[in-house]
Request: fold
Amino acid sequence: RFVNVSRITRKCKLGEEQVSSIGRGLCVLLGISVDDTPRDAEYIVRKILSLRLFEDESGRSWSRSVMDGNLEVLCVSQFTLQCVLKGNKPDFHCAMPAELAQPFYNSILEDMRSAYKPELVKDGKFGAFMQVHIQNDGPVTVELTSPSSLTDLKQMAKQEKQQQRKEKTRAKGPAESGREKGSQRSRQDPSASSGAEGDVSSEREP
Amino acid sequence: RFVNVSRITRKCKLGEEQVSSIGRGLCVLLGISVDDTPRDAEYIVRKILSLRLFEDESGRSWSRSVMDGNLEVLCVSQFTLQCVLKGNKPDFHCAMPAELAQPFYNSILEDMRSAYKPELVKDGKFGAFMQVHIQNDGPVTVELTSPSSLTDLKQMAKQEKQQQRKEKTRAKGPAESGREKGSQRSRQDPSASSGAEGDVSSEREP
Reply:
């Protein structure tokens, strides 16, 4: 559910013996949570492939995705992203146990390969201790959180209710629908619209 | 508010001309949000220095912090961590504008240096375009989120009310206080106790 994406222009490699490596593309650290479902996997795969983190030929930032540019993806499992702190000690009981996380991780890779070009999707050794050499370009680092989880499901249920209420209101008259739309934004859902009409900062350089 | 921490055993360096570099320690990517306050900075500084991401002499994982081991910290500003997605395009209106974020970033560095050893805290060039070479050891990557923000403030207000209610209940009799304690856990606050009594997974290797 928590995914860390770094933009790579030159190189990202795994291990001293170079288990795996990519050139231009994305290095993805995948943190799989106990309550992740295929729906989360589907969301994450789609976002990784479609996220516009690269510039186009004219140098316009945030305009091209991995798929647009025929770029590579390197996926590494990273259960420590599911860490919660007990004081200053990390605790990982929210991470999916390895025996379940490994097939889940493999299915994410399979989905990504079949949605894109299999030869451009690289992976690490699941659960292995490795040195990951990331040459982060920018730097540009983005966190992705898939929408589902108990909290989010509750949130979604709430939003659905709001939607229903909105539709009722609309049936009576069109007033206020704009304002209500804004109130449905969820902090937990990074795919939710920012609500800002202007897009001033999106051309900003790191 | 969103902070990405990578464990480094060998090297992390900034830029081709090596603007800055560290050996064993933590590489910290700092995403400062529009609504961050000195309280967030204080929390983040404390957690970075005290997080137990390193092993001790006997090889016991998750037992030593940067401070315990006299290790280095490299801090890099990274506004892209504040990204929200508008479809597949990143939008950064939640990031603190550069003219405010720069002094905020500098104050975080100052706080960290005065809380620790100034010579062990390195930084990058604020807002500069750089190649960040991260040799992530494990890999071990952790996300830190400071507790404040509008949503969290609401959450805290709610918790305070619960606390008050609990204290009222306690005044009447001690029943149920344990159960209520559990219900105060917040998904947004990674420092919140996991609630699990066992700590089985915390010795797990990446």
